[in-house]
Each structure stands twice: as structure tokens, then as C-alpha cells.
Amino acid sequence: MGAWIMAGITFREAARKKILWTALLAGAGFLLVFGIGLHFQVGDLKNSAVPPFLRYQVISAMLMIGLYTVDLLAVVMTTLTSVDTIAGEITSGTIHAIATKPMDRWQILIGKWLGFVAMAAVYVALMFGGAIAEGYYIGGVLAQHPLNGVLLVFLECVVALSVTFMFGTWFSTLTSGVITLGLLGVAFLGGWLEQMSGFTEGSRLAMVGIISSLVMPSEAVWRRAAFEMESPLSGSLQFSPFSDISIPSGAMIGYAIVYLLIALGIAVYHFRERDL
Amino acid sequence: MFGEKVAVRDLTLSVRRGEIFGFLGPNGAGKSTSIKMLLGLATPSGGEAWVLGAPAGNVEIRRKIGFLPENFRFYEWLTPAELLHLHGRLCGVPSSKLEERVPALIDLVGLTPHINKRLQNFSKGMLQRAGLAQALVHEPELIFLDEPTSGLDPLGRRMVRDIIRAQRDRGATVFLNSHILSEIEITCDQVVFIREGEVVTSRDLHAQQEEAVRVDVRAKKLSPECIEGLARWCDSAHADEERLTLTTSSRGRLPDILRYLVGSGAEVYQFTPQRMTLEELFISVMGEDRGF
Questions:
Q1: What is the ipTM for the molecules in this complex?
Q2: Left (φ > 0), alpha (ψ -120 to 50) or beta: where does B75 sit?
Q3: Are the C-beta atoms of residues B194 and B35 closer than 8 Å to each other?
Q4: Per-residue DSSP letters for B25-87?
Q5: CATH 3.30.70 applies to domain B213-275
Q6: Do A101 and B90 touch (CB under 8 A)?
Q7: Which of A71, A95, A112, A113 could be a cystine partner for A10, CB 3.0 to 4.6 Å?
């Protein structure tokens, strides 16, 4: 019961943060620019000699780039809105009035986590829904398996959220934010290194990418999402940077789920044990 | 312990149910840490504590405990009513009871004119009032108040004093940590002084009324024999011309002393018993300028 009350209040708290509204504003701006760009691209292609089947692949690739932007916005927004919730409330003493209520501390942490999970779900649904709708109504293309893609991007946000919570039980707001964003950077770089290794079949480069993905699997989850959503022809023609050169396996998705559960478990354990 | 620093050691306290207990000590004495340990916010490295018959930090027993943290802060976008509803729900108070209790509590702490304002527009004193109300929303048996009058004006302090007494009158125990000794003195039944995490001394403030008093006397014709004779009732007697200062262990002896002085031929113009204030006691226990 306590966890659900905390989830509700955290959702409302998160929804009032300026960073969320800034991210929504940035998202709306992105959708506007993306829509305009898509509109012009469709017009230009119609007036060109590009064969219709290739036009479709070019628009599909544009959609993937748009979805990737949405993915980045969602992960960064999830991290920045949640980074203060544990560390900040411990520092300010706000947590004292809550942690002395008749509920175990795990309920506080899980409740807060659920609140942010709900917020991330709404954000991802809104932004992805917007981008996919624009792709369909303006560009006339539809992502392959959009539900799989959205769920995977949502998973990526939850991974980032759980890591943020884990560090928030140890460090200050600023420190845990820097560490989490640093890990996301490592994952980003690792993902691209692994992708690049596909061109040369370089196993050493691929290994660096895989290790980076094991340290922080967020980017690997995105690349799997991209594989799910991209049209097979566009992928094999390598029209977009997310073409299926090196596709994370289902096992990597399983690893990401275990990873987030472990991060959350550590967060709960440490939050229960530490002095407030 | 915080790293190498020992915050609290050999702290033995016993608080009777239904009393207002004052917890005193200079800054850094370990007061807030002690409260945190009793509430389960901090885990002691050794020893044990029992609160309302259960180990300190017991989750279920917290249903019977209210807590006002020092410098109360909460989500600033809430109104006082929303704040109290939230804390009431977390304490398991049914919604129907909250509907009645919340407006009454807001009125009790003097926030009715601000009922629709958000906490972000509250002054420090108003936040403190809201914090006090959240500590009482579930009618706890034991209430920990950490500096409850911090930021309050004199009227606010008086209101807090009245609320604390009302809580005791309904049977609650109040554990009060405050720097304002005059408040403690007129509110508490028992006080404990701690320094560097250890209990230095304790006082029953009701019994204190019967304890040692100092009497300032102004009189003429005070003979040395008369002053020596005071030893029957007094612990000390020091004369300086017409001024006589004496101490006695009981107020009950004062009429006998006065009768004796007059009977010995002294012309008494002034006979003023001086009870030691808590502040004087605090300074005598802690020493001067210890950062309090």
C-alpha cells in the first residue's frame, strides 16, 4: 500500500519538474522539425527519379533517425528527472518525514521507482507515438514491429532509471548524475564501436563494444529496438546508421533485464541499510 | 559512529509514558542522532533501544509515532491539506477520518487562512506549523519533536506549547528536543542533559520546584552569631554588610529561616528566594560557551 502511495506522489512530483516539461517541449520541437523535414523529403523524392521502392527505404531510414532522437531524449529525461529523488531527499532531509512512517524502506524506493517508470512510459508513448504517426501520415512508412521497438526503448529508460536510483542511494545528486550519464556515454560509444566492427569483422573492436554493453546495456537495447523497427530491406541496404550490421541478441535483452533488476536490488538493499 | 567520530555513547534514557521529556545538549551533543536511532533512521553500532515496547525502528510501531524533523521540508507544490492527507494515508488513517481530522489540524496550527496556498509560498514558521500537523495527523502515542519552535514567532511558540500540553493531556508522550530552554522549562516534566553523546545529568522539573533555592536577603543588624545559627537550615550563608546570600535544600524551610532572622533581632527589608533557571542549570552543567 505504501509503495503505491509513494508511486502516486512521485509521479505527480516528477510531472511537476521543469526538466520534464523542458524535455516535452524539446520533444514537441523535435516532432515539429521532424515532420517538416519529412514533408520536404517526401516532396523532393516525388520530384526525383528515385524508384518508388527506394523512396520508401529512404523515408524509413529517416524515421529511424527520428526514433533514435526520441530514444536519446527519453533516456536523458528519465535520468535527469529521477537523479534528485533519492539523493536530493536524503540531503535535504525531506526523506525523514517519509522514512519514519509505518512502511519498510523498500516500499519507499520501489514506490518512487514505479512513479518514474510510469512517467517514462507516458513520455516514451507520447514521443514514439508522435514520431511513428508522423512517419505514417506524412512519409507513408510504418516502422516494423513498432510495439516491440517501443517496449525495448522503454526498457532502456528503465535500465537508466534503475542505475540512477542505485547510485542515488550512495552519492549526492550531482555525483550520481555524472556517473549515470558517464555510463550512458560508455554504452553509446560501445554500441557504435560494436556496430563499426561489423564493417571489418574486427573481433577486437567488437569485444570492446560487447564489454561496454555489459557495463551498461542501454545502447545495445536501442540497437535491438532499431533492428525490430527498421524495414528488412532498408536494414540490409544499410540506408541508416542502425542497419543490421551487428544485432544484439535476445540474450542481451535478457541480460539488460537482469541488469536492471540487480541495480534495483542493490538500490533497495543499500537504501534499507544506510543511515538517513 | 560516523567514521571515526563517536556521535553517541553510553546513552541510557528512560522516558515515562504520558510525560513531556526534554532532551538538551549543546550543538553536536548527539541529540538528533539519538532521535534518528530511536526512529530507525540510523542504526547504532552497538546497544539497544526500545520504543513503546518494541525495538527501535520497528515498522509497525511507527504507526503510533509522530515525528517533526528539524527544519521540516516537503514537496513544495502540495497544499497543507494535501500534505496531511498524504501523511495520514501513509500512516494508515482511513480517508473518512482524514476528512474530519485534516481541517481541524490545520486550524489547530493556525494555517486555515493559508489552506489553499502551496508550501512553496510558506515562511519557515508556517512550514514548521505544517510539519507539526503532519506529526499529529494519526494521533500518535509518542511524538518526537526536533526543534518544534524553530522559526516561530512568540505567538507560534505559545501555540506549540499549548499543543504539546494538549497532546500530553490526551495521554501521548512527547520527546522534545529544543534549544529554547525557557520553553523546555515551562513545558517539560523531565529533562536530560547530554554532552558528547553521554548523559550528564537529568532533572525532574516538578521536583525541581522543591529543590535547592538561593535566597537574597537585605537586612540590618545581622550579627555573626545570627549568621552562624543559620547553619541549622542552610547549606551556605554569606554576608556582605547588609546583603546576605544563603542557600537551602528545600523551599519548606524558608518560613523558619525568616522567623529565625527576625527573632534574632535582624531588621529584614528583603527576602527573595531565587529558583535556579534551567538556563543557569544548563550552564552550570555544560560550562560556559560550549557552542550552545
A1: 0.80
A2: beta
A3: no
A4: --TTSSHHHHHHHHHTSS--SS---EETTEETT-TGGGGGEEEE-TT----TTS-HHHHHHHH
A5: yes
A6: yes
A7: A112
> Are A94 and B92 in contact (CB < 8 Å)?
no
Element (H, E) at B174: strand B173-177
C-alpha cell at A183: 555510463
CB B208 within 8 A of CB B243: no
B127 to chain A, any CB pair closer than 8 A? The answer is no
- Residue B122's identity, in one-letter code, is F
CB-nearest to A97 from B60, B61, B134 is B134
Q: Distance between CA atoms of A233 and A237, rounded to whole angstroms?
A: 6
Using H for helix, E for strand and C for coil, what is the string for A165-229?
A: HHHHCCCCHHHHHHHHHHHHHHHHHHHHHHHHHHHHCCHHHHHHHHHHHHHCCHHHHHHHHHHHH
Q: Could you tell me the sign of the dihedral formed by the alpha carbons of A239, A224, A187, A171, in that order?
A: positive
- The boundaries of every CATH 3.40.50.300 domain in chain B are 20-205
**Check: CATH 3.30.43.10 for B20-205?**
no
Q: Is B95 on the interface with A (CB under 8 A)?
A: no
B175 CB within 8 Å of a chain A CB: no
pTM: 0.83
Domain with CATH 3.30.70 in chain B: 213-275
| pLDDT string in tens for chain A (276-residue length) | 789 999 999 988 888 777 778 888 888 899 999 999 999 988 888 888 888 778 888 888 889 889 999 999 999 999 999 999 999 999 998 999 999 999 999 999 999 999 999 999 999 999 999 999 999 999 888 888 989 999 999 999 999 999 999 999 999 999 999 999 999 999 988 888 877 776 666 678 888 888 888 999 999 999 899 888 887 766 666 656 666 567 888 898 999 999 999 999 999 999 999 989
Which residues of A fall within a CB distance of 8 Å from B7? Answer: none
Are A276 and A101 spatial neighbours (Cβ–Cβ below 8 Å)? Answer: no
Angle at Cα B69 formed by Cα B67 and Cα B75, nearest 5°? 100
**Cβ–Cβ of A101/B86 closer than 8 Å?**
no
